[in-house]
Amino acid sequence: MGGAVKGCTRGMVILHPTRARVVNEAHERAKAESTIIPRDVLQVVANSIQDARTAVNFAMCSKACKEMTETDSLWKSLYELKYPLPSKAPPKGKWKELYVFQTKFMRDVLLNKNLDEILEKAYPRWESVGSISLPVAT
């Protein structure tokens, strides 16, 4: 055996190509299941996130970080920091969707320079309704 390394007690392992895939999958699975930084430390970091951009950047760090940025508690706290709470809480698992919707609505509708045009297209013109008189109790 010409390729053996001196001092190596294990020797060399040659894998058939069909077996190499199984070994690689096991290795990738082990990497995904174990984190270098303890999960409780990552949770402390996730709990200190103050804006959506930071949450998105944190989620791109690892699979464990991504899991921690998908929680309702995080997105509810981010929502509370930026918007008034809705009168009725969204269903479980929907705080992130509500945050994204509210942000898009603010950007695309309320802060749009053409708000009047958007409202005219979305709602009937109130000028054609005329005045409305309500009876007043005397």
From TrEMBL:
Q: What is this protein called?
A: F-box domain-containing protein
Q: Which organism is it from?
A: Chloropicon primus
InterPro entries (UniProt xref): F-box-like_dom_sf
Q: Which SUPFAM superfamilies does the entry link to?
A: F-box domain (SSF81383)
